[in-house]
Specification:
By secondary structure, the chain is α+β, with helices and mostly antiparallel strands. It has 2 domains: 103 residues; 34 residues. The protein has 3 helices and 11 strands, in the order βββββββαβαββαβ. The strands form 3 sheets. The chain has a 6-stranded antiparallel β-sheet. The protein has a 3-stranded antiparallel β-sheet with strand order 4-5-6, with no helix packed on it. Strands 2-3 form a two-stranded antiparallel sheet. The protein is globular, with a radius of gyration of 16 Å. The chain starts with 19 loop residues before the first strand and ends with a strand.
């Protein structure tokens, strides 16, 4: 039994196509109809080797790599919360400024149907629900189209 401030390492699970994903969207990327295409972005931690903050998605390796030294960056992607372990309200509360964030929802299978998108459970300390949507969302020629498709897949569940 865990005591004090000990953290439990949760196992990585397979996210069924029928399960929901919650995506927090800051108000600057929110339109009356829901998230605009610019909301669908990847995030990665700075490179542990060279410290560079720029990254790219390598579709062959299905990994994010440092833009400077080509080191694989673990855990990158578009962060969502898996409904199995979260609620829309929980997802909103994880924001630095919850009142400035709406929450959109999509089924994992609908996200996977967008060309090149992968859904991977990636639990982190303090958030068992954390799930990454991996795949190139910005490179030409289809980056804009991918973001448009994602904006159609994700629907409003908690408006601003």
């Amino acid at each position: 039994m865990a005591q004090g401030n000990e953290q439990i390492a949760w196992p990585v699970e397979s996210v069924p196509d029928s399960d929901a994903l919650y995506y927090r969207v800051h108000r600057q990327f929110w339109a009356i109809t829901g998230p605009n295409p610019g909301a669908f972005r990847d995030r990665c931690n700075p490179c542990s080797v060279c410290g560079d903050k720029k990254f790219r998605y390598d579709a062959m390796d299905k990994n994010y790599k440092c833009g400077k030294c080509d080191m694989v960056l673990p855990g990158g992607g578009m962060s969502t919360d898996w409904a199995k372990y979260s609620t829309p309200e929980d997802a909103r509360k994880r924001a630095a400024k919850p009142a400035e964030n709406a929450v959109a929802v999509a089924q994992a299978g609908s996200v996977r149907a967008v060309p090149g998108m992968l859904v991977e459970h990636n639990p982190v300390l303090g958030n068992r629900a954390h799930t990454n949507v991996k795949g190139d969302k910005k490179s030409a020629p289809d980056g804009t189209q991918i973001r448009v498709l994602l904006s159609r897949v994700f629907q409003t569940i908690l408006p601003l």
